[in-house]
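Changelog note: in this version the structure field was regenerated for every chain. One regenerated record is shown below for reference.
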Amino acid sequence: MCAEQRTGRQSTTHCPYCALQCSTVLSGERGGVAVRPSADFPVNRGGLCQKGWTAPAVLGAPDRLLTPLVRGADGELAPAGWDEALDLVAGRLREIRARHGSDAVGVFGGGGLTNEKAYTLGKFARVALGTSQIDYNGRFCMSSAAAATTAAFGLDRGLPFPVTDLDGAEVILLAGANPAETMPPLMRHLEGADLVVVDPRRTRTAERAALHLRPAPGTDLALALGLLHLAVTEGLVDKEYVDARTAGFDAAWESCLPWWPERVEEVTGVPADDLRAAVRMLGGARRAYVLTGRGAEQHSKGSDTVAAFVNLALALGLPGREGSGFGTLTGQGNGQGGREMGQKADQLPGYRSLTDPADRAHVAAVWGVDADTLPGPGRSAYELLDALGGAEGPRALLVFGANPVVSAPRAAHVTERLEGLDLLVVADFVPSETAALADVVLPVAQWAEEEGTLTSLEGRVLRRRAHLSPPPGVRTDLEVLHALAVRLGQSADRFPTRPEEVFDELRRASAGGRADYSGISYARLDAGEALHWPCPADGDNGGGPSGDGGGSGHPGTPRPFLDRFAHPDGRARFAAVEHRPPAREPDEDFPLYGTTGRVLAQYQSGAQTRRVPELVAAAPEAVVEMHPDTARRFGLADGQLAEIGSAHGTARARVRLTRTVRADTVFVPFHFPGAARANLFTGDALDPRSRMPEFKVSAVRVRPVGERP
């Protein structure tokens, strides 16, 4: 490690939370690790959010897992040695595969795993287990945006430009994104722009907007179609750009032709004059961006909704121009890299396809196996969880870096599926709600105890550096996968445990793929180079997979679409999409919209942040935000415990009265466990393309706890 990166007990690394990957400096020994932001990293520029400032507290969590746990005959988890635990897991896996076939074992990964771990997990599933049944929680995060932008641009990069490009924007439309709470340091880059915020709630981001559009949940697609309709009828389409750089405009225009402003107002509740104002702001700006977030994407039509916002950006001539563009705000820390490295059900490393013979042959050659032995695509995340324990589904599941008991839709149903398995193995560093159900729990290293790389929301590959060694008795995920693979009959050298060795193999596997990392190396990253993929190897100049990757080679691609888009003809594609309602709309039995999301002090399923006293003090429990008029209508008072029920299940949360939410809508954050799980009432409707669950809209009723229907 370079001296400037680790001097004494100081280490430069990155925050363990969101995809901004703010640069931080750690100092001190275990039990007293302090964090401060790096002043020179362009994304956070010396700032951190509340979660980043308190991140070291999780390293010393009182209930940190320090030894393997095995469930005994009495039904209780008890400490065990590593050999005992691993032998048990490997033996049970062999038995289940022999009895039910390779697909009887499933693997569930996470968008917070490093690139090295995500890569190895996908390889382990397909080579050591021979199973097609692998997916990850990023399916719940970025899959709709990935499907839409791949179709539009030929490439899935969350932001196909550096975050710092946003500094010069005049107008930014944020559709379903609340970065003031989910990634606060990003707001520094939005200060110079007039914001147009699309959100049914008046969030902290919306409070800073020049214009706030408040559609009813589930109507974002109608709103986006209406905005394109207005762009055409107001004469704001960049015809020269559309003719030169795109295809399919006429079909897209035909699909939005019926969505005149007054009809959009009727469906969405957004005034027609506000729609006109939004389009004129975007169309009149010299530098403008359209950005989407989970609010637009986590729907059974999320891919089409993102496609409709892409259509708007293309019509205005924004993508592929320096100073303007379209992007999606990736959520999880390695949400971008996690889906590129092969833990997604249909993908191989380098964003290669499991159904493409050339892609299969390339990766198989790197792995030293016959391409015919690689399984095909498996089930998507929710479909995998839903199938657990069923006649045709997996009988065993290995979970790395995820907590589906809290994060999955229809949470009670998913919990029942997990409880019905023959074998559940969870690798984690704290006893999450999913780990509490496991037959075997394997304690693994945390972010500040491991080396590796992550890929931020702007496609920049970053180095994670170890500041501490893992506690005695704790292993890294790479060591766990190596040990299991060897016990399952793989050669020891096929599953290396050194992250840099894994990354060098990853580079070879990605070479020539859409997400090409082959020109990136630890040496180049440690030398301070800012490298965005695609970054192919440049011959024999030291940047290729066989070189040392020193300070030469391909410079990376921070803005991949300036000259052409990634389709063979270089053109971006418009998409003809049609609005449709959510899977279930409010009715007499369930008269309200229920929507879910995040709050400033908590992160994802809360397994980490709920162990930080300062964050618990800031957001100690689940709340249901509702308008005072809604509370009066259903006999509820501020601070009262309420039930939020749908056709799928019921959650409990404390009422918080606020005028920031629509009177037809209630909002519940999804970070909390037990009866407070918001995902108890979310349903299982899936986007037909991305297989994204419909987290953002449910038909619900609210009532005081204990009150009968």
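Spot check on this record: Residues 147 and 256 are 20 Å apart (CA to CA). Residues 1-7, 540-544, 546-551 have pLDDT under 50 and may be disordered.
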